Amino acid sequence: MTRTYIVTGSASGIGAATAELLRERGEKVIGVDLRNADVEADLSTPEGRRDAADRAVELAGGSVDALIACAGISAPVPLTVSVNYFGVTEFLDRLAPVLARSSAPRAVVVSSMASLQPNSPELVQAMLDGDEAEARRIGQELADQGPQVGYLNYPSSKRALSRWVRRASISELYAGNGIPLNAVAPGTVLTAMTRELLATPEGVAMVDASVPMPLNGHSEPVVIARLLAWLAGEENTHLAGQTIYADGGADATLRGDDIWSAVQA
Ligand code: NAD
């Protein structure tokens, strides 16, 4: 039977590839983005998130089977925290009760291998506390110190998002409603987000030094789309709270073979 998917960030990159793949498979997709989408909305504000969720459900005729949250930015400013963390978590929480009415509800978000990079623990905590004003204050303090420190807004947003996924996935709202909630963490994907960075050999060398991808190198967005589609599909019944690093081996290279000892200590 045809399933109905809400896909954010549907106008470009990973979100566009995901919407296209699902439509090719005969599924119904409601795209959400700033422009060129079924629902044009700004996920960086609380009103924009509420409005986007309500209009998407209306377009879906009140019935939604899966949510795939791809919208995100990597600018070295606090707006990144609003879009990447609150623009995902508040949007999902508002839609979870609607998803719960589906016979096979699913939710997936796009984190990043940047969730493993150095971040601001204070900023991560403010996000997990649900305090957007405080998170933006800390994010602005970082941005004021220049783009290199300001970049911490991005890995912090993705670390917080992957941690939120673990917490929320086992809550009443998600597990209690039979909704598997997980994240995909791409390595370097060839989209608008990375185009400028990868335009020079120096840029490529810098990216590859921080995101080593021994398996098949940089990926096309459809690679991530296929995994998102599986996680949001009916076959996925028991994956909960995971961040799946679809990163050509970057995680295994950077963290090595033992990521469990810290848990035992
Ligand atoms: P992209 O720039 O091609 O697409 C991002 C989309 O999000 C755009 O269409 C944009 O309009 C939309 N968006 C941005 N701000 C928004 C807002 N306030 N409200 C609504 N929509 C908004 O980038 P992409 O590479 O496809 O990124 C998709 C996701 O993948 C992001 O969450 C990003 O952090 C993550 N990611 C990307 C890479 C990569 O290498 N490209 C790697 C790891 C993670």
UniProtKB/TrEMBL annotation:
Signal sequence extent: none
GO function terms (MF aspect): oxidoreductase activity, acting on NAD(P)H, oxygen as acceptor
Family: Belongs to the short-chain dehydrogenases/reductases (SDR) family.
The organism's place on the tree of life at top rank: Bacteria
Keyword entries, A-Z: Oxidoreductase
Protein name, UniProt field: 3-alpha-hydroxysteroid dehydrogenase/carbonyl reductase
One Pfam match: adh_short
